[in-house]
Amino acid sequence: MARDPKFRRRRVGVAPSRARRIVVVPASLAGWVAPAVLLAVGAAPDPGKVPETRAPRKTVWARVGGGAYGACRAYDRAAAQVFGAASLPASTVRWTERAAECGRAIHVLLVAARELAVAGVGVELARMSDEARRVHERARAENLDRAERLIARALGEARAIGDLPPVGAVHLRAYVALAAGRVDAARRLGTASLARGDVPTWRALRLLAAVDLLEGELASAVTRIDAAIRSGEVDTRASGGITQALAAWIFDRVGDHRAARDAFDQSGVGRNPSSVLAAAAMLPFHERVYLLALYQAHVGNTEHARILFEAYLGRSEPSDAERELARRHLAALERARRPGP
């Protein structure tokens, strides 16, 4: 006897008391709740279809990342003050260690990069053996590479939260590029820094003056460094000394040796070599050697000057004209060393 089709539909239908309920799940939990619901009802997700889920909204802690949120926030506030200073204050704080703890704290990353960028720049290259200088140069290159990665991470974090790069960050990246010998990148970043007012104008000008000289744009180099010197914004003795020491390198290279001597005198290097050491730290390593050789010659340390000029001539980077200039300086040192008739 055939069964009534209506009866069959009633048997296989779902009873009203067990009908599916629509549950509203927050989007941030959908990725977790959906698989759990499927397992609870015994159904398997379609392997050919990726479920559409939304990532949870970032929290403030996730933006800081690594370590306790409160500690990283405090470190970042302190780092913002340090990064805004003209130079790193004397301190026992190791910002590279704090950057490892707080890998998303933007100012901590930037101050750590700045710490690496100036590490070891005060060493006496003239007192080192050739091998020791090579070891120091490799360590310097590694530090600059680490600094570049930290700056890139900091700028990436700023973009991720919709912020502009912190003031001074673009200039710091240009500084690191110049010191590492990546002159094209230094020009691009230095120009961007000047355009956005990332640092005082004289700081951007002196960096671009160094870039100009390294690319053979001698007239532009002199114009920019002269503008930096004459700027009323050079408001501290240390900043003015660094600018003058860099000017001495530029004036020497264009053949104005009297202006180079005057710039050294204005920099105060006879009393305190920190200005010339800081200026030399901005430059690629071989030009750092040259500037320090000029400094040693200026203050009368002829033996140290000779060692550094010879170290410069032993490198592959200088052009023929630059080598000739270094040889002339060596010849002048030799004449000064000889006793008079």
Structure summarized in a few sentences:
This protein is mostly helical and 341 residues long. 66% of the residues lie in helices and 0% in strands. It has helices spanning 5-12, 27-41, 60-64, 69-83, 95-101, 106-117, 130-160, 169-179, 183-196, 201-214, 218-230, 237-253, 257-267, 274-281, 285-298, 302-313, 320-337.
Mean pLDDT figure:
81
Report the radius of gyration as a whole number of Å. 31 Å
Estimated helix fraction: 55-70%
**Helix vs. strand class:** mainly alpha
Pick out the low-confidence regions. Answer: 3-57
**Which word captures the global form?**
globular
Q: How many angstroms separate the termini? A: 140 Å
Number of strands: 0
- Following the backbone from N to C, one meets helices and strands in this order, namely HHHHHHHHHHHHHHHHH
Number of helices: 17
**Major sheet attributes:** none
Strand content: under 5%
Give short descriptive properties of this protein.
single chain, 341 residues, mainly alpha, 17 helices, 66% helix, globular, disordered N terminus
Structural features, described:
- The protein has 341 residues and is mainly alpha-helical.
- The protein has a domain at 61-161.
- It has 17 helices and no strands.
- The chain has helices at residues 5-12, 27-41, 60-64, 69-83, 95-101, 106-117, 130-160, 169-179, 183-196, 201-214, 218-230, 237-253, 257-267, 274-281, 285-298, 302-313, 320-337.
- Helix 4 (69-83) packs across helix 6 (106-117), helix 8 (169-179) packs parallel to helix 10 (201-214) and helix 14 runs antiparallel to helix 15.
- It is globular and about 65 Å long.
- Mean pLDDT is 81; it is low at 3-57.
